[in-house]
């Protein structure tokens, strides 16, 4: 499951509440501390909470007691198109033509 799919499991509207920590997805739906997918008014299910857990007032073992759902897959970054837009190319050509006209 990737982050986009995980977001669907936010505990709202009867959906299960899943959270990811260090690449592992846990089902926190049955926890009274995750009612409606919200944890203490601070965190919402359907997210990767790896960084948030580093500063949490409790230990990691508490999250690890919940049922495992699967692994959080990293999505490949969208490739950046390194081609220049046509507008930039045309503007460059016009600038070169203007410079050439000044030199002639």
How would you describe this protein?
A 3-stranded antiparallel sheet has the order 1-2-5. Strands 3-4 form a two-stranded antiparallel sheet. The chain has one domain: Flavocytochrome B2, Chain A, domain 1 (Roll), CATH 3.10.120.10. It is rod-shaped and about 80 Å long. 15% of the residues are buried. By secondary structure, it is of the alpha+beta class. It is built from 4 helices and 5 strands; from the N terminus they run αββββααβα.
Oligomer: single chain
CATH superfamily: Cytochrome b5-like heme/steroid binding domain
According to CATH, the fold-level topology is Flavocytochrome B2, Chain A, domain 1
CATH architecture: Roll
The neighbouring-strand order within the major sheet is 1-2-5
Tell me the number of structural domains: 1
Which structural class best describes the helix and strand composition?
alpha+beta
Quote the distance from N terminus to C terminus.
63 Å
Q: Which value, in Å, is the CA radius of gyration?
A: 24 Å
Largest sheet: 3 strands, antiparallel
* Inertia-based shape: rod-shaped
User: What is the string of helix and strand elements?
Assistant: HEEEEHHEH
- Number of helices, counting only DSSP H or I runs of 4 residues or more: 4
Number of strands: 5
- What percent strand? 15-25%
Percentage of residues assigned to helices? 25-40%
Defining traits:
alpha+beta, 104 residues, Flavocytochrome B2, Chain A, domain 1, single chain, two-stranded antiparallel ribbon, 3-stranded antiparallel sheet
Explain briefly what this protein structure is:
With 104 residues, the protein is of the alpha+beta class. The protein has four helices and five strands, in the order αββββααβα.
């Amino acid at each position: 499951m990737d982050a986009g799919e995980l977001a669907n499991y936010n505990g709202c509207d009867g959906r299960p509440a899943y959270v990811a920590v260090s690449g592992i997805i846990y089902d926190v739906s049955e926890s009274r501390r995750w009612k409606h997918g919200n944890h203490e008014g601070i965190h919402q299910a359907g997210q990767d909470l790896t960084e948030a857990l580093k500063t949490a007032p409790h230990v990691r073992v508490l999250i690890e007691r919940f049922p495992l759902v699967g692994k959080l897959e990293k999505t490949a970054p969208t490739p950046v198109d390194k081609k220049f837009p046509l507008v930039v190319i045309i503007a460059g050509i016009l600038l070169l033509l203007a410079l050439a006209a000044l030199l002639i």
